[in-house]
Automatic annotation (TrEMBL):
It comes from Rhodobium gokarnense. One of its GO terms (molecular function) is kinase activity. Residues 246-447 form the Histidine kinase domain. This is histidine kinase. The keyword Transferase applies. Its main location: membrane.
Length: 461
C-alpha cells in the first residue's frame, strides 16, 4: 500500500467512501420506504376494519356481516387478506380464512381502542393485524365485540425489495458520477504536485534555476525550502571554487621556486636531486589541477552545455596537425545537436585527453562515436593499437584508484578524463578490444535549450 501513488490511494479511498455512503443511503431509503409502506398498509387496514364494522347486521336473531368489504381477496382462501369478528360467543370470519382463525391475544381493550399485532397466519406467514374493541348498539344485539383485519406482511417485504431493485441502477449511476467527479477533483488538486516534480526535473537538468513562489499555499513552504537548499548549495560551491583558486595561486609561487631550485641544481651538475624535485613538483601540480577540474565541473553541473559534435571536430582538427594524429584515419559518427551537461572547456579537456591517448597508441584508425541513451550520452573512442595489459587495466578501472598511479604516458590524460566525468555525475570505463582499447565516456545529457557555458572560473594561474 505504501508504494501506491497518491492519486491511486485517493481514488481507491474515494471510491470506497462513495460505495459505503451510497450503501448506507440505500439501506436508509429502504427502511424509510418500508416505514412508509407499513403506515399506508395500516391506514388501508383501518379503512377495511371500518368497512367490516359498518357492514354488520342482526338477522334472524344472529349477528351477520350483511355488507362485506369490496376487496375480492377477502373471498379467496388464504389470499393474505382476512377479517374476523368475535361477539356473543360467535366467531364471524372472512372466506379467505377458510377453516382457520386469527389467534388474537387475550388483551383488554378500551371501547374503540385499536391495537396492532404481528400474528401467525393460516400458512405460517406473518400477518400485520389491526384489532378494535367495540360495544355493539342495541339494533345489533348489544354487547362487546372484537373485530380484526389482517394482511400478509410478505407483501410489505416484497414492496421493499421491489423498491430496492428500482433504485439500485440509479445508485450505481450516481456512484459512477461521484467517483468520476472525485477523480476530476483529485486531478485538479494534485496538479501542483505534478508541476512540483516537473520543476525539480528542470532544476536537475538546468532549465530552471529556482522553484519560485507561484505555488498553492500548501506547497509553497516546500518550494521555499528547496530554493533555500539551492541557495546554500551555490554558496558552498562558490566558497569551494574560491578556496580552489586560492590554493592554486598560493601554491604557484612555491612550486615555481622549487622548479627554479631544481634548475639551479641541474646547472650545478646535481642531476638526480634536480629530477627528484622536478618529479615531486609535477606530481603536486597534477593534484592541484585535478582538484581545480573537479571544482569547475561541480560548479557547472546544473547549468553547463557542450556540443559533442563541435568539440569532436575541433579536437580532431588539432590532432590531425600533430605527428601522431596526422598519420591516422579518424572515423567520426556523432549526431548533430547532441549535447552533454558539462562545461565546454571541461568536456574538451576530457575528450581531448582520451583522443590524444588514442592517437598516441593507435596503429592506423581511431573511431569516435556518440549516442544518447536515456538521460545519458555515451561517447566511445576506439583505436586499433595494442591496448593496455590486463593487469594495468584492472588497476586503472578499480574503484578508488588514481589512474595516474599506473605510470606510463597515458596515465595523466585518463586521470583527468575520469575526474571530469565523475565530477559531472558520469564515468569513464576502459576495455580491451581486438584490437585496441575502447574508452567509453558516459556523461549526463544536456536539457534542450540549455545555454552553452564556457570559460574556467577557477584556474591555476
Amino acid at each position: 500500500m505504501r508504494r501506491l501513488s497518491l492519486r491511486l490511494r485517493l481514488a481507491l479511498a474515494g471510491a470506497v467512501a462513495v460505495v459505503v455512503a451510497l450503501a448506507l443511503a440505500a439501506a436508509g431509503l429502504v427502511a424509510l420506504f418500508g416505514t412508509h409502506v407499513e403506515r399506508r398498509a395500516m391506514a388501508e387496514l383501518s379503512v377495511q376494519l371500518d368497512q367490516v364494522l359498518s357492514g354488520l347486521a342482526f338477522r334472524d336473531g344472529a349477528l351477520v356481516l350483511a355488507t362485506p368489504p369490496a376487496d375480492p381477496r377477502f373471498s379467496k382462501p388464504y389470499s393474505g387478506l382476512y377479517w374476523q369478528i368475535a361477539a356473543e360467543g360467535r366467531l364471524l370470519r372472512s372466506r379467505s380464512l377458510w377453516d382457520a382463525e386469527l389467534p388474537l391475544p387475550s388483551d383488554d381493550l378500551v371501547d374503540g381502542q385499536v391495537h396492532r399485532h404481528d400474528l401467525v397466519g393460516p400458512s405460517g406467514e406473518t400477518l400485520l393485524t389491526l384489532e378494535r374493541s367495540v360495544t355493539l348498539p342495541a339494533r345489533l344485539g348489544g354487547g362487546p365485540a372484537r373485530a380484526a383485519v389482517a394482511m400478509d406482511a410478505r407483501e410489505l417485504a416484497a414492496a421493499q425489495r421491489a423498491f430496492l431493485a428500482d433504485i439500485i441502477p440509479y445508485l450505481a449511476l450516481l456512484a459512477l458520477v461521484l467517483i468520476a467527479a472525485g477523480w476530476v477533483q483529485m486531478a485538479v488538486g494534485l496538479r501542483p504536485l505534478r508541476s512540483l516534480g516537473t520543476r525539480v526535473t528542470e532544476l536537475r537538468s538546468g532549465t530552471a534555476r529556482r522553484m519560485g513562489d507561484d505555488w498553492p499555499q500548501e506547497v509553497r513552504p516546500l518550494a521555499g525550502e528547496i530554493d533555500a537548499l539551492l541557495d546554500a548549495r551555490e554558496a558552498d560551491l562558490a566558497r569551494a571554487r574560491a578556496r580552489a583558486g586560492d590554493l592554486a595561486h598560493g601554491l604557484k609561487t612555491p612550486l615555481q621556486a622549487l622548479l627554479g631550485e631544481a634548475a639551479r641544481l641541474r646547472a650545478k651538475g646535481e642531476i638526480e636531486a634536480a629530477e627528484d624535485i622536478d618529479q615531486v613538483v609535477r606530481s603536486m601540480q597534477r593534484h592541484v589541477e585535478r582538484e581545480l577540474v573537479r571544482a569547475r565541473a561541480a560548479a557547472h553541473a546544473f547549468k553547463a552545455r557542450a556540443d559533442v559534435a563541435r568539440a569532436v571536430e575541433r579536437i580532431v582538427a588539432v590532432l590531425r596537425r600533430t605527428p601522431d594524429g596526422g598519420r591516422l584515419d579518424w572515423q567520426i559518427n556523432v549526431a548533430p545537436g547532441l549535447a552533454v551537461a558539462l562545461d565546454e572547456g571541461d568536456f574538451s579537456e576530457a575528450l581531448g585527453a582520451l583522443a590524444e591517448n588514442a592517437a598516441r597508441f593507435a596503429a592506423s584508425v581511431v573511431t569516435i562515436a556518440a549516442t544518447a541513451e536515456g538521460e545519458t550520452v555515451h561517447i566511445a573512442l576506439r583505436d586499433d593499437g595494442p591496448g593496455i595489459p590486463e593487469a594495468r587495466l584492472q588497476e586503472m578501472t578499480a574503484r578508488g584508484r588514481r589512474l595516474d598511479e599506473a605510470g606510463g604516458g597515458s596515465g595523466l590524460g585518463l586521470a583527468i578524463a575520469s575526474e571530469i566525468a565523475e565530477a559531472a555525475g558520469g564515468a569513464l570505463t576502459l576495455a580491451n578490444k581486438s584490437p585496441g582499447l575502447d574508452a567509453r565516456l558516459v556523461l549526463p545529457l544536456a536539457a534542450p535549450g540549455n545555454p552553452p557555458l564556457s570559460g574556467n572560473p577557477a584556474t591555476s594561474g
